[in-house]
Amino acid sequence: MRRIxxxxxxxxxLTSCGRPTPTLTPxxxxxxxxxxxxTAAPSPTPMPPTPTATPxxxxxxxxxxxxxxxxxxxxxxxxxxxxPVVITPIGRLAxxxxxxxxxxxxxxxxxxxxxxxxxxLDDGTGRVVLLMWLNVYDDCRDAHKINLGARVRATGTVxxxxxxxxxxxxxxxxxxxxxxxxxxxxARPIASLTAADEGQRVMIEGTVARIEKGESNxxxxxxxxxxxxxxxxxxxxxxxxxxxxxxxxxxTAVQVVGTVQIYKGTLEVxxxxxxxxxxx
Length: 280
Fold this sequence. Notes:
Layout: H1 4-15, E1 100-113, E2 116-122, E3 127-133, H2 134-139, E4 151-161, E5 164-168, E6 175-179, E7 201-213, E8 218-223, E9 228-233, H3 235-238, E10 253-263, E11 266-270, E12 277-279
Parallel strand pairs: 3-5, 9-11
Antiparallel strand pairs: 1-2, 1-4, 2-3, 4-5, 4-6, 7-8, 7-10, 8-9, 10-11, 10-12
């Protein structure tokens, strides 16, 4: 369209030369099309929003407690195999002088001295004196069981004293009562005891009449209604009598096992061990 307009204008000029100027009739120009306005693509119809699903609350899970796993019991340590005890026959102890050995035997006699106690053991092959110093005796848990008739196992050093074979433990645990002593002394009324019973082992029962304490011994007088007798207690025995403080009270019931002796015309009973005196 823009090219046609100048051509038309030129023609008009040429035809008008030398001629009267005609009245120009306005030429209607073809309307110029406005430039095409690009048609905007219709906006797509918005899709309705997809409803957001409200998440359902998850059910609260109750945690199931895991079963408690019990620890496997620790196996006990293996029991050590006991070392067999070698028992030396008493009849062969002379071959082991100065050596430590173990013997077993039955107590066939008991005795006391100022620093300890003596028990003669017999196993059928011979006899030996089991010498227990006071500290060893006090350390022995079975001391109350060891008396005439008991069966004893003892470990100690073999030696001799005044040509008497003996075995001497170092501590109380080396002496055990395999079988406790049983009462063997006959019970006697005090009035029945006479000089003819000297050297006999007897048992008396009664109550304390009085007590006399000296530096070298304790003199305990016991009565049973039939008579009264002196019970002589050496310090090493008196100091180890269970419940000895009750002997201070007249009327205390006692049982005494001892050997009948006569000293300066006086009949007396002498216990050999602390457990020969029982305070009732």
